[in-house]
Amino acid sequence: MEIHVIHYLIISTVMMFCGIYGFFTRRNLLALLISVELMLNATNINFAVFNRYLFPDQLEGHFFSLFGIAIAAAETAVAIAIIINVYRNVKQVLTDDITDLKG
Amino acid sequence: MDITTALLSMQAEVSLVAILIIVLLTDLFLKESNPRMMQSVSCILLVVQLALNIVPTAGEAFGGMYHSTEMASVVKTILTAGTLLVFLQSGEWLEREDSRRKSGEFYLLTLSTLLGMYFMVSSGSFILFYIGLELASIPMACLVALDKYRHHSAEAGAKFILNAMFSSALMLYGISMVYGTCGTVYFADLTSALTGTPLQILAMVFFFSGLGFKLSLVPFHMWTPDVYQGAPTAVTGYLSVISKGAAAFALMSILVKVFGGMCEQWSLLLSIVIVVTITIANIFAILQTDLKRFMAYSSISQAGYIMLAALAGDGQGMSSLVYYIVVYIVANLAIFGVISAVEQRTNGCVERSAYAGLYRTNPHLTLVMTLALFSLGGIPPFAGFFSKFFVFAAAFHDGHWLVVFLALINTIISLFYYLLIVKAMYITPNDNPVPTFRSSALMRTSLLLCVAGIIVLGLFSSIYQLLSDVATF
């Protein structure tokens, strides 16, 4: 069977919405981080696939996914540093226990 | 185009990078000898930056990737001036025993977020826009979590970075659909390519919700009160005006410039979001007793008013948006200046009850706070009245009379809660109010500048005139 754009897009859409679902239901800060990574990677797949199949003579989409990966790595580094700091202060990374600030 | 011309056309960014490096080196080599030096060095360098870029210039570099208009240049100057005000106010907090060692980091991180906002407002393609946005929000998370040993700060930092990542993922998903339907991410080419097909409308909604998080519009506002309360006060001030101003300007110029062909769709979306934002924020603001949380809800509703200008989508809308941002910066920073001055004397207490009877002991600070609250509420003859008037006029001129009417009703509600604080300061009796104190010279300078701005910006029409002369997209 040949693989078309649509197959990639199904995967990326499922990833995106799994990420959104996870972000709203998970109770662990690290699980939230993993959900967000899932969303960011879904967009990277989108960019690469659109570029490869629809506009094969240019490179903008590939570059966008490269920048996306690099920036996501930077964000993750900062996020993990902050989560470690939360853990040092509260000894816990579950959102149910981090409720001093109420939205 | 060779590299020299490219660098010359982005002179504001280049000089800010130079300043960043100088601040980094000062932090590295000279801080040990004189810990108070960081503040004076950063303030002087920002004044130099203002002086270098006071004349609005337009420029383009890297094949349209970087595209700065005169209006973007004016916005950059405004953001720099606002940052200078924050720096002037931050001295007292950074001289405290527990945060003295971190003063270098504060100035460095703030300057790098400012650099990100520079790129954000003068981007000519989605790639540069995204990089600028992240450069503005990643160091911001570090700033929010700067008070490392206070766990409120760490908690606020975690909430901020996770929400920032979530929103940029939504925004990127929207951009990827724009790319998929048009085959380009350059603003100049997108204008004609976006026609309003269903996929493009979905893309616009994703993009809008991503930036809605940054601007804290309802229903994307849940993080705002927590982060504002947990962050150090100087950072909260910076977060509430500078980064919000940059995001509002960027959102408006992209909506008008890139999604211009889908004006009908986004103006409906924006109208609904604005009305909901202003109303919900007003209702919640009434319930708050913590002043920083209160200011968070106040800033959410102000974001609604700012975006009202974007509804107009023409030169008048643009100039009234930027004028609103200027007025909002001086008024809000005056309030945060007073909050952070009082906070140093009350062991970090920012409850409204702590301000009761402040008039008897600190009449000058009370006056500053009162003028700023009047300006935020829109009482004439202060600048806030005129900025609201221009925003309403711009939206009304474009035919959005229902939205303007609902916003007008909300202005009256907002007067109620702004005056609650004024009442606490002047009328509510208090047996032991905050004792009389004298803040540092730099703090007093910044409050004086803010008050001058609140009064002068409203009375001199030449400022609005200047903005509307350079208003282009």
TrEMBL record, chain A:
- According to the record, the segments passing through the membrane are 6-24, 29-50, 62-84
Q: Which reaction does it catalyse?
A: a quinone + NADH + 5 H(+)(in) = a quinol + NAD(+) + 4 H(+)(out)
Q: Which E.C. number(s) belong to this protein?
A: 7.1.1.-
Q: What is this protein called?
A: NADH-quinone oxidoreductase subunit K
What's the source species for this entry? Phocaeicola faecium
The entry's keywords? Cell membrane, Membrane, NAD, Oxidoreductase, Quinone, Translocase, Transmembrane, Transmembrane helix, Transport
The gene behind this protein is: nuoK
List the Pfam families: Oxidored_q2
User: Is-annotated flag, keyword Calcium?
Assistant: no
> Is this entry keyworded Coiled coil?
no
The UniProt subunit note reads as follows: NDH-1 is composed of 14 different subunits. Subunits NuoA, H, J, K, L, M, N constitute the membrane sector of the complex.
Major enzyme class: translocase
| Location within or outside the cell | Cell membrane; Membrane
Similarity field: Belongs to the complex I subunit 4L family.
What job does this protein perform? Answer: NDH-1 shuttles electrons from NADH, via FMN and iron-sulfur (Fe-S) centers, to quinones in the respiratory chain. The immediate electron acceptor for the enzyme in this species is believed to be a menaquinone. Couples the redox reaction to proton translocation (for every two electrons transferred, four hydrogen ions are translocated across the cytoplasmic membrane), and thus conserves the redox energy in a proton gradient.
Q: What is its membrane topology?
A: Multi-pass membrane protein
Superkingdom of this entry's organism? Bacteria
MF GO annotations = oxidoreductase activity
Automatic annotation (TrEMBL), chain B:
Q: Specify where it is mainly localized.
A: membrane
Question: What NCBIfam families does this protein's entry cite?
Answer: NDH_I_N
**UniProt keyword terms in alphabetical order:** Cell membrane, Membrane, NAD, Quinone, Translocase, Transmembrane, Transmembrane helix, Transport
Q: EC number(s) per UniProt?
A: 7.1.1.-
The reaction(s) catalysed by this protein are: a quinone + NADH + 5 H(+)(in) = a quinol + NAD(+) + 4 H(+)(out)
Assembly notes: NDH-1 is composed of 14 different subunits. Subunits NuoA, H, J, K, L, M, N constitute the membrane sector of the complex.
Domain NADH:quinone oxidoreductase/Mrp antiporter transmembrane span(s) in chain numbering: 123-414
Q: Which Pfam families match?
A: Proton_antipo_M (PF00361)
| Location(s) in or outside the cell | Cell membrane; Endomembrane system; Membrane
Disulfide bond as UniProt keyword:
no
Family per similarity comment: Belongs to the complex I subunit 2 family.
Source species: Phocaeicola faecium
TM ranges: 12-30, 42-62, 106-121, 158-179, 199-223, 235-256, 268-287, 321-342, 363-387, 399-420, 441-467
Q: What's the protein's topology in the membrane?
A: Multi-pass membrane protein
Q: What job does this protein perform?
A: NDH-1 shuttles electrons from NADH, via FMN and iron-sulfur (Fe-S) centers, to quinones in the respiratory chain. The immediate electron acceptor for the enzyme in this species is believed to be a menaquinone. Couples the redox reaction to proton translocation (for every two electrons transferred, four hydrogen ions are translocated across the cytoplasmic membrane), and thus conserves the redox energy in a proton gradient.
HAMAP family assigned: NDH1_NuoN_1 (MF_00445)
Q: What's the protein called, per UniProt?
A: NADH-quinone oxidoreductase subunit N
